[in-house]
Amino acid sequence: MCTYELEGAQLYSIRWYRNMIEFYRYVPKESPATKVFPVAEIKVDVAASDQNRVVLTEVDRTLTGEYQCEVSADAPLFHTDIKAAEMVVVEPPLLSPNVTADRVSYVGGDHIRVNCSSPPSLPAANITWFVNEQMVPGFTANHVFNFSNGFASSLATLELEATALSPVPTLMIRCEASIFDIWKATSHTIVLRERSANPASALGRSFTGAATVTCLPTIVMLLLQILLQFLMQNYTETSIR
């Protein structure tokens, strides 16, 4: 898009450039008003383009770069101004981001570490964290891994300190990957459940039950010793006779 204000003057021409090479021109006094110049990889949709916009088709990542719009007023002043802007062609990931955690449950005071990875894309995706559907504010730890083909993947790590006696004894964690405002995808949600800090209580075993389990082998050993002594005594008496 190219917006401008001529302050009462008539438009003479609109010229579009990529890296200062002209590829599209609009001159309202000429017939036809539009003219396309051959520039590698650039294909203009003439029917959809006019004095305010130029529409490109079959766009690929080679068209990422700087584009310039030059506006010229008509006689007698022929005032001309040119402005530039960067266009980035995005190739989004083929898959959604993936989230993994270093544990499946926690107790109060635990240090929890969660990773989120976004598959290769162009450019690398930004990652946002959500805990119990609340966005984690101010999170910027996003590591980018570049590949030889120009693509890049993102990896972000979230570290949490679990709160003891949480009013909601679960942590629902997910991540969201986005590229500008044209692509967004979310990971699956992992659920970490709070567990008791006392394993015996968690297993539901009482003190009495634990004592019974502990004493039972001792009672069995005593019975075996008594039986062995009885057998030895019988064997000795038989041998003497």
UniProtKB/TrEMBL annotation:
It comes from the Eukaryota. PANTHER family: BEAT PROTEIN, BEAT VI. Keywords: Membrane, Transmembrane, Transmembrane helix. Residues 1-72, 97-178 form the Ig-like domain. It comes from Papilio xuthus. The keyword Transmembrane helix applies. The chain crosses the membrane at residues 207-231. This is Ig-like domain-containing protein.
